[in-house]
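#dry-run=false #mode=assembly
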Amino acid sequence: MQEEKLTDKGIAPRAATASGIESAYGGYIRHKRLVMVVLAIAVLGLSVWSMGIGSLDLAPADVVAGMFGQSTPQVNTVVQNMRLPRVLTAVIAGIALALAGCAYQSTLRNPLASASTLGIAQGAAFGASIAIIAISGGGVENSVAYEGVANADPVSTAICAFLGAMLSTAIILALSRFREMTPESIVLLGVALSALFTAGTTMVQYFAEDSQVAAVVFWTFGDLSRVTKPQIALMAAVTALSAVFFFVNRWNYNAIEGGESLAHGLGVPVSRVRLASMVVASAAASTVIAFCGIINFVGLVAPHIMRRLLGADYRYLLPASALAGAGLLLASDMLCHVVVAPLILPISAITSFVGAPIFIYLLFRGVSR
Amino acid sequence: MLEARNIAFSFKRSQPLLRDVSLAVEPGTFTAILGQNGCGKSTLLSIMTAARTPEAGEVLLDGVPLAKVDRRERARKVALVSQHSHANRLTVFDSVLLGRRPFMDSAPTAEDRAIVAEVLDELGLADYALRYLDELSGGEYQIVVLARAFVQQTDTLLLDEPTNNLDPSNQQEVMRLVRSEVERRGIGAVAVMHDMNLALRHCDRFLFLKDGVVDAFGGAEIVTPGQIQRVYGMEADVIEHAGCKLVVPM
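#status=ok
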């Protein structure tokens, strides 16, 4: 009966409908690609706009000319040596944090997973505290926080921050391998580690000089302009490699989000993908935090915004989140520079001010995983 | 063909859950695994997909131990409809396209998309193709899950409580679609089930598990009041209605 329906009566209209489905799907994919192009243009526009803001206001045409050394020497210097590195830092850091957040949220199947909620940022802050206070002895003879940071060796601070962040990741992974923890337990473990590292940082600060404490606090404020060109290159390389890794695994993430048993049934090595993704995401986030300091909410919010806008298909969610992360950090950086100019506000506070209301809005609208 | 031979399994520090259980998923058959909660039905399915490793015995896929079969190769031959999949914000088309994952190199081909469109159409999901999974009803979602397994085009289909939480009409629809696939493509299907009447209506083989061992295995003739009493400890009558057996709890 069923066979008859499917073969004798159904073929012609079904073929027509099947091609109609394919055609509609093609249109849907084109729409997603268009959104990506618009996002990329928006990030580009925001970058140029951001480079025009400062004590020396520049029109977009001047910024572009300055980037290519075609403007006055003063504009060329300002754009190439000060603003372009800062904007590049914002774009790369935003991409890295958003991609890491996206990968955490997929592999742990938890919308709250990010470098901040998994204790990775707190691990970095602990590492930086050790470097600034115990290793560099920064700020012992100074009373001003900025001088404390200046005295602290940026290389050892970045290395220790990176090690602290990776230590947090290593503890999570070791314990999860030891007891076969569920993704939910891993996130809770991250919360516990956050508290542990924060306590460690507090203890280190307790025994430090005032200026050293101020230096640590100043480091945690985050700063996009302290990143040097070689550091930007390193950050870009790590981000690019991690982006390739995440993109290769985009179908695996789609499968894992549907459930572990589904992914297993589709031939996805779930544990291996989860482990590798955690390591790669942590390496990307840790590199950013090591150079820029703590940057909150970007890794958490950017994937949520794009999930709502484009759905949870990681083929598009990953690049869209990366662009959203870049845009969010660029916009936050611009706010840092304009709200109480000429003072520059701490980037970590501004990303929270921008990100938290968006996150609350998404919660009230009903966050979809 | 997928075949479990003399499987034994127990969780850490607990009584053996399965002892000497064998099941061959023969082409063109639809087997219902029946038994009380916690008797090891779902565990048997997870062993048959290599999600768990048996303590004794082995699972063979076309004569090769399942543990030695490449994951992708396994997924091209055995599909699993799990009771633990999640409706996320993926479109129906993309979710079903996931079923082609074992055949993809880096991205789906035009053939993959054509297979998905064909199956969506066959299963009456054409109008839902671009809707998100988390916007579907339970019945619609379960048919999407089936569609995903169908596009895997495997010889064997394993279903873990596929009609859970569905209303009676959707239960019938899901089972009818599986039955149709068994008849049309000659695949072997195994479903862990609780509803004996649904099983009697659509399945042709029945495996009763009790205390970790196969208590009975055969056609509809083994579904008797005595068998039900022994496995479930409940009184029931088994009657004939419109050429089909019906279990009537007493």
